[in-house]
């Protein structure tokens, strides 16, 4: 799957991923009204609204981006109906030819970690049959429990030719409370980066590993160091736009071939119609606003990193 992701980035000349992280407050009123008329003001109604919202955005941008990244918490908050919406979103995006990165940030050990991996990027056995429960192409993984927590995911990646992005240096302000602490004179995020490179060496695609890394756009100097530590690792870069990351800060995350990183924007794209810059589209044109914001993001990043 890493080969497909790289191929789509090259083809569309767009090293970007759109985070499908819907809050109900983001959804235009006309979509909510329609969903509530059919399902009532229920969890099912909310879940139908966020799926239709996602669908409109995906229809508007699928031809210009390589990948999407739905954040599962935004769906889990609506319980089982929300997970149905998550699954429908994954399936719809894949039907449009998009690579799907499930932002699930799972991390456990042994059979529990295996169950997470099987449920999201692998297949589960049911009697004589097997099923792909959520069937994302990549998922995000928390490495805090060490190799015991990550290896089950790597094993499923090798079996299914799928991938993971391991949290290394995240974009949030308090990430340094743990990630920047010195261990034997070196920051912890560097040691995690070395382990990511080690895990990835046994699960290689053509040029890059199935094992990627998450490194926030808000820390470009650290990103530069980690790029050197993980030369064959694809880097998922959150924090662009709404969190303060700027395009000119992103160049260190890329390799000399112009590849090696994919930059995420969530609110900046899916809530573009609320931004004064795109306000001319209005609520009814929310998806067109998302497309305009995506085009601007692609141009902004390409101009800075190429």
Gyration radius from CA atoms, angstroms: 19 Å
Quaternary structure state of the chains depicted: single chain
Order of helices and strands: HEHHEHHEHEEEHEHEEHEHEEHH
Distance between the termini: 24 Å
Which CATH class? Alpha Beta
**Beta-strand residue fraction:** 15-25%
Helicity, as a percent range = 40-55%
- Just name the CATH architecture: Alpha-Beta Barrel
Overall form? globular
Main beta sheet: strand number and arrangement?
8 strands, parallel, barrel
The number of E-state strands comes to: 12
Describe the structure in your own words.
It is a single chain. The chain is an alpha/beta fold and 306 residues long. The chain has one domain: Alpha-Beta Barrel (TIM Barrel). It has 12 helices and 12 strands. The protein has helices at residues 2-12, 29-39, 43-61, 73-76, 79-95, 110-121, 147-160, 176-179, 188-201, 220-229, 267-270, 286-305; strands at 16-18, 67-68, 99-106, 124-126, 129-131, 138-141, 163-169, 182-183, 186-187, 211-215, 235-237, 261-265. The strands form 3 sheets. An 8-stranded parallel beta barrel has the order 1-2-3-6-7-10-11-12, surrounded by 7 helices. Helix 7 (147-160) links the parallel strand 6 and strand 7. Helix 3 (43-61) crosses helix 12 and helix 6 (110-121) runs parallel beside helix 7. The protein is globular. The two termini are 24 Å apart. The mean pLDDT is 95.
